[in-house]
Amino acid sequence: MKNTVYRKILSVLLVVIECIIFYAIFVAMDINMKLLRQSIGLYVIYMILCGHYSIKDELIFDEIKHVFQATVIYMITFAVIMPYSAHTDKRRYIMILAMIMFFVSIILNRTLRIIMRHLLTKKTIVIGTSEDSLRYARLYNNNRFAITEVLGFVNLNTDPRFDQKFDNVVREDWNRFSDAPIYDYQDLAKIVKEQRVDQITIADSTMNQATFDLVIKDCIPLCDSIQYMPQDNHMMNFSSSIHDSDGLLLISASRNKVSIFSRFIKRTIDIFFALIGTIITIPLALIVKIINLVHGDHGPIFYKQMRVGRNGQPLGIYKFRSMVTNADEVLAQLLESDPAVKEEWIRSAKLKDDPRITPAGKFLRKTSLDEFPQFFNILKGDMSLIGPRPVIKEELEWYGDRVDKFLSVRPGLTGYWASHGRSDVDYPERCDLELYYIDHQSILIDMEIVIKTITGVLTGEGAR
Prior knowledge:
The chain has helices at residues 2-28, 36-49, 60-81, 91-115, 117-120, 131-141, 169-172, 188-194, 209-219, 260-294, 327-337, 339-348, 359-366, 374-380, 403-406, 416-419, 427-440, 443-459; strands spanning 122-127, 148-155, 182-184, 199-202, 225-228, 241-245, 248-252, 302-308, 314-320, 384-386, 412-414. It is of the alpha/beta class. It has three domains: 2-117, no CATH class; 121-231, Rossmann fold; 260-322 and 357-459, no CATH class. The strands form four sheets. It has a five-stranded parallel sheet with strand order 3-2-1-4-5, sandwiched between helices. Strand 6 and strand 7 (248-252) form a beta hairpin. Helix 2 (36-49) runs antiparallel to helix 3 (60-81) and helix 3 packs antiparallel against helix 4. The longest helix is centred in the middle third of the chain and has 35 residues, at 260-294. The radius of gyration is 26 Å and the shape is globular. 28% of the residues are buried.
C-alpha cells in the first residue's frame, strides 16, 4: 500500500534527523569524540529493538513507553560500561544526553507524524454504532499521533440477517462526531471500494457469535486489514498474553499483581510530588484567604471531608473550601424543591450549576486547585498521587459486588476517571473507569494519567 512506503520514509527520516541532533548535542557538550560511534550506535540499536522506528498505528503513550524503555537500557549500558573505560568523567554527560534525546525523539516523531499525516493515515471504516464504536472513532480521529482516519460507521441494524438489536449512540450523540457518516451494512462492499478503505474495525463488543461470524465472513474478501474488539469482560490487562498452541488461540487473563519494586517506585514518586505540592499549597492558601475576604467570606479556607479509604478504613481528606459554609442545608433545600436537580444528583452525585459554590471556589474547581491540600494526605500515606478518587460510604453501592476490588488500593489525588472525562461521565461509567485502572495499574499508566490530568486542568476539560 502507498502509505506503507511513506511509513518507511518516515522511519528513515527519524533515524537521520535524530542522529544529526544526537551528534550536535554530543559536540556541544564536548564529549570525547572517541565515544561517538559506540554512543550513537547503541542509541539507534536500542531504539530499533524497542520499536521506536516502527511506524505503527498507536497512541502517544505507546510511543513514550517504547522510548522510555530504550532510554533506560541505554543509560544502564553506559552506567556499567563507562567505569571500565578511559572516559569515566564523561559518563554523566552521556546520561544527560540520553535524557535530552528522550524528549527530542518523542517530539520529533509526533511532529513528523502530524506533518505527514495525510500520507500515512490508514483509512478505516468502523462496523458498529455502539458506545465502543464512538469511543474508538473519537480516540483515533482526535489523536494526531495516531495514523488512523475513521471515515464513517456502519449500522448493523439495517441487515435483516442479524438476529439482535444494536445501539446507535453515534446518531444520538451526533454533535460530538458530526463529520463521520453512518452507512447501511448492505453498502459495505461499495463503501470499501469507493473510499479505498485500508482497514475495517469491528467495534461492537455486544454482537453475538452468529453475528460476528457473518460480519467476519463479509469483511475478509473486502480488506486486507481487519481488527475487532474482543468480549473480554474487562478481564484482559497488560499482564495478559496471547498464545498460539498448535492452532489453538489462547488468551491468558492473568491478575495484574503489582510487584514490590513497583510499589516502592510508586510510593517514592508520591512522596516526591507531595513535597512539591505542599510547598505550593502554602502560598496558594494565602491567595485563597484574600479572595474570600474580598467577597465577604470569613469562614475557614480548609475543610476536612470524610471518605472511605483503602480496605474500607475511614479517611479524612483535606480540601480548600469551595462552597458556602452551610452547603448541606442548601443542598437539602434544592433536592426538595427541584425534581430536575434531584434527578441530576442521583445520576452523577454532582450538579452542573451548583449555587453552593463560592466565587473563589469556582476558580479553584475550574483549575482543580481545590484538591491541592490532599498532598498532605499523600505525605501521610492515606492517599496516592494516582488512584481511584475517594468516595463517601453511600457511593459504594454503585460498585456492587466489585466494591472489595475498588477498596483494595489507596485512593488517588487524580485517577483514570479524573483524567478521562471527570464531570462529563455518569456514575456507572465512572465505576468502570476506576476499576479499569485497578486491573491495569502500572507506572506507565500513571504517567499517562498525570499527562492527561495536566492537559485537562490547563484546558479546563471535565473540570468542575
